[in-house]
Write a structure and sequence with these properties.
By secondary structure, the protein is α+β, with helices and mostly antiparallel strands. It contains five helices and eight strands. The chain has one domain. The N terminus is likely disordered.
Length: 160
């Protein structure tokens, strides 16, 4: 019998997503100031930027840009998911839904080999989300730019 992984399915790569309002912030002016980043490179397909690959030492984090034509449907589904997992008061739900409504860019993150025991991958994702004033979807939870869990298991854990 194998030991269960703390989060997610062992056969799927660990993942997260960062939801942001201003993709113009993505670039060397930001990346060169994030200490965890050892190197990064753009990923493109036929001249179109499709993502960024970060080497943070303990893992590689590939951030794939969601195509703009998929954004609206995804955000509608994400808002529905947020309502379903939310367990706070009405004002906090309205805040969360407003934050989702203003998203204009989504980066799906694939983490290989996966989240590390020391939390360095999570720390990197939290820092990047904070610097981008974004929302982080991680461990089935939605976390705000300041690191405060807004909905999901992490929020439920911190509210009790």
């Amino acid at each position: 019998m194998s030991k269960a992984k703390p989060f997610g399915d062992r056969n799927m790569p660990d993942n997260a997503a960062i939801y942001i309002t201003d993709p113009s912030l993505l670039g060397s002016r930001l990346f060169d100031h994030v200490e965890a980043i050892q190197s990064y490179q753009a990923i493109s397909n036929e001249g179109t930027a499709t993502g960024i690959l970060f080497d943070i030492g303990v893992a590689n984090v590939q951030m794939n840009f969601m195509p703009q034509q998929e954004l609206s449907n995804h955000l509608n589904g994400f808002a529905g998911y947020a309502r379903q997992i939310f367990s706070g008061d009405q004002d906090d739900l309205l805040y969360l839904l407003s934050r989702i409504r203003h998203v204009s860019f989504i980066m799906g993150c694939v983490i290989l080999p996966g989240f590390d025991e020391g939390g360095k991958v999570e720390a990197f994702l939290f820092e990047l989300t904070s610097r981008l004033n974004g929302l982080l979807f991680i461990h089935n939870s939605i976390v705000d730019h300041d690191g405060k869990p807004l909905a999901g298991p992490l929020a439920n854990y911190t509210h009790h």
